[in-house]
Write a structure and sequence with these properties.
The complex is a heterodimer.
Chain A (H helix, E strand, L loop, with lengths): L4 E10 L2 E11 L4 E5 L6 H8 L7 E6 L2 E2 L4 H5 L2 E4 L11 H11 L4 H14 L15 H13 L5 E5 L7 H18 L2 E6 L10 E6 L2 E7 H5 L4 H8 L5
Parallel strand pairs in A: 3-8, 3-9, 6-7, 7-8
Antiparallel strand pairs in A: 1-2, 1-4, 4-5, 9-10
Helix pairs in contact in A: 4-5
Chain B lengths: L1 H20 L1 H25 L14 H31 L1 H6 L5 H29 L6 H28 L6 H14 L7 H7 L1 H9 L1 H13 L5 H21 L6 H4 L2
Helix pairs in contact in B: 1-5, 2-3, 2-5, 3-5, 3-6, 3-7, 3-10, 5-6, 6-10, 6-11, 8-9, 10-11
Classes of the chains: A alpha/beta, B mainly alpha.
Chain lengths: 240, 263
């Protein structure tokens, strides 16, 4: 089976400061993979590279068989992204925000409307469609961003610390929701976080620390009888 | 192709609705040149005599002389404003969202540029309409003929804004743009005084004015306003547009430029 998301030998540095060193992994369809790392581990750099904000010094990424460096348009069309920082226009309605994004992917008119209805329904927000984003709470805004990331029916969903600033209940709801998406929609999910409680035992887990992949396997396997929290602290030298 | 046009329409729509919602910005854009026209030019009228020079075929008042320069000024401010909003967009992350679009990046940047040019032209015509109400009016043909000139100068100044936004790290640095870009570009140009008047003061100033692409934008508008064509100005404006756009595309290139330095 070919990998949905394949990251090969990514190395990148900012000037002399290395950020990522030979990072590689590949994810199958329908898999939920948590990318766990303390702050400064290189998660955001990796996300910038995965979304082609910039190209790495070495290595390549391929998405659904399309190389990000050779066919960026085709590869990007298969990626949905939820950035750590909210990127919504607060003074526009939910629908207008989504319409704008749909247009960035070349969708308009009834095609876009249909997709917007579908994705909002999936996050149970259809009735909020005509509200201004400013009127939504943090959890709803995040759900809306997840909906937005799915408008163009990508095969891979990338989320960079999507639960930052949310309360525990909302955090749990969103984590659960994205797990369901991966299982039900055969979506490949890469979920960056520094919070171990967002990782389930049967999730794929990649531990990133100081730009290096420290561990890659099932969360339960990596925890190896310990709690994931203590195992993680042990691996990263408690530097969180 | 269709996707590219949908994208263009969406970006223009977004920038336009943003502009409409910022009434203060529109008001400032219109009031600024009107203050120059009504207050500054009125005072200067007595001090500055203008001889007959192309494209003028008769003596003109100073108010009439500075109108094309003020049109250019509106576009200059508008171009810098859109550059500011690009820096803001980058800090707020919406630029990142734009960059994840599968549509080629140079086209996305062009869409932004096109949107800001459209808005600046709308501002120029509003200004000209108010100027006409105060008695400073031009022929209908002139109003039509400046449209292509305004498109070109708007694109050129917008591209300059784009280039600046690709080199400015933070919003705070933007004050520098005012001091080091807008003011010198405006004052060291033919917007306020003709070249020969500058030459009287200093040949060096004259040369700087003649080199300044903004001068050529203003002259392109000035000649068009009288149904005349200034080939030299056109070449300069196109050249400057090409250089600014080329450099800003490099600046936004994922393999180099600012986006690489700023994660």
């Amino acid at each position: 089976m070919t990998a949905r998301l394949s990251v090969q030998g990514i190395t990148h540095s900012y000037g002399k400061k290395p950020a990522l060193n030979n990072v590689g992994f590949s994810l199958e369809k329908g898999s939920f993979c948590a990318l766990l790392g303390p702050n400064g581990a290189g998660k955001s750099t990796l996300f910038s590279i995965l979304t082609r904000l910039f190209v790495p010094d070495a290595g390549d990424v391929s998405v659904a068989g399309q190389s990000l460096s050779r066919a960026p348009g085709k590869a990007l069309a298969q990626i949905g992204v939820v950035f750590q920082q909210p990127t919504l226009d607060l003074d526009l309605t939910v629908r207008r925000n989504l319409k704008y994004f749909a247009a960035l992917h070349g969708m308009s008119g009834t095609v876009a409307d249909k997709r917007i209805n579908t994705v909002l329904e999936r996050v149970n927000m259809r009735e909020r469609m005509h509200e201004k984003v400013r009127a939504l709470n943090g959890g709803h805004r995040r759900r809306m961003e997840i909906a937005r990331a799915l408008i163009h029916e990508p095969q891979v969903l990338l989320l960079d610390e999507p639960t930052v600033g949310l309360d525990a209940a909302t955090r749990q709801a969103i984590t659960g929701h994205v797990h369901d998406l991966a299982a039900e929609q055969d979506l490949t999910v890469l979920w960056a976080t520094h919070l171990v409680d967002e990782v389930r035992d049967n999730d794929r887990l990649i531990v990133l620390h100081k730009g290096i992949v420290l561990a890659d396997g099932s969360a339960a396997g990596i925890a190896d009888g310990m709690t994931l929290q203590s195992r993680f602290l042990e691996m990263t030298g408690g530097s969180e | 192709m269709k996707a590219a046009l949908i994208c263009l329409a969406a970006i223009v729509h977004r920038e336009a609705s943003r502009f409409v919602s910022q009434r203060g910005r529109f008001l400032a854009a219109i009031v600024r040149p009107l203050v120059w026209l009504i207050v500054f030019a009125a005072g200067f009228r007595a001090a500055l005599g203008l001889s007959i020079q192309p494209p003028y075929q008769t003596y003109i008042t100073y108010e009439v002389y500075i109108v094309p320069g003020l049109c250019g000024m509106i576009q200059l401010f508008s171009g810098m404003q859109s550059s500011l909003s690009l820096v803001y967009d980058r800090e707020m992350g919406s630029m990142r969202l734009l960059m994840t679009s599968p549509i080629p990046r140079w086209w996305l940047l062009f869409c932004k540029l096109f949107a800001s040019t459209t808005i600046s032209i709308f501002q120029v015509y509003t200004f000209l309409a108010i100027a006409a109400l105060t008695g400073i009016d031009f022929s209908f043909a002139g109003y039509v003929a400046i449209l292509p000139a305004l498109i070109l100068t708007g694109l050129m100044l917008g591209a300059l804004g784009l280039l600046l936004s690709s080199t400015i790290n933070q919003l705070e640095n933007f004050a520098g743009v005012m001091n080091f870009v807008i003011f010198p570009m405006f004052f060291l140009s033919t917007a306020l005084y003709p070249l020969w008047k500058m030459a009287e003061a200093s040949p060096l100033l004259r040369d700087i004015c003649a080199f300044n692409p903004f001068s050529h934008g203003v002259e392109l508008i000035r000649f068009a306003l009288y149904g005349q064509f200034n080939g030299m100005a056109l070449v300069w404006v196109l050249l400057a547009f090409g250089v600014f756009l080329g450099l800003s595309i490099l600046g936004y290139d994922p393999a180099r430029g600012i986006v690489r330095r700023k994660a």
